[in-house]
């Protein structure tokens, strides 16, 4: 998934308009739209600002870890069961 498509997807999930994002990062909406459509290159700092405005992080993932990261992002990855009671919770309830 490209950085552009990830940006568009995140914007959609956050329910943010291009106008709203452009105000937050201080860029004209038309310029931002052109960048997100892939019609114009942009600086890394623009994508860092976009990520911050959407309460996200822009990161690089080593290729050998990419499949695992994608699974986690899709909600299919393994990890700790956050709904399970901790040992401390269990002991305190005794």
TrEMBL record:
Pfam families: HTH_26
Region (Disordered): 74-94
InterPro entries: Cro/C1-type_HTH (IPR001387), Lambda_DNA-bd_dom_sf (IPR010982)
Domain HTH cro/C1-type as annotated: residue spans: 10-61
PROSITE patterns found in the cross-reference section: HTH_CROC1
Name used for this protein in its record: HTH cro/C1-type domain-containing protein
């Amino acid at each position: 998934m490209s950085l552009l498509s990830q940006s568009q997807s995140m914007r959609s999930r956050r329910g943010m308009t291009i106008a709203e994002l452009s105000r937050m990062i201080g860029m004209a909406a038309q310029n931002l739209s052109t960048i997100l459509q892939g019609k114009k290159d942009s600086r890394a700092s623009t994508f860092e600002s976009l990520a911050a405005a959407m309460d996200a992080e822009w990161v690089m993932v080593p290729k050998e870890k990419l499949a695992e990261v994608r699974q986690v992002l899709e909600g299919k990855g393994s990890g700790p069961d956050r709904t399970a009671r901790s040992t401390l919770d269990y002991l305190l309830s005794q």
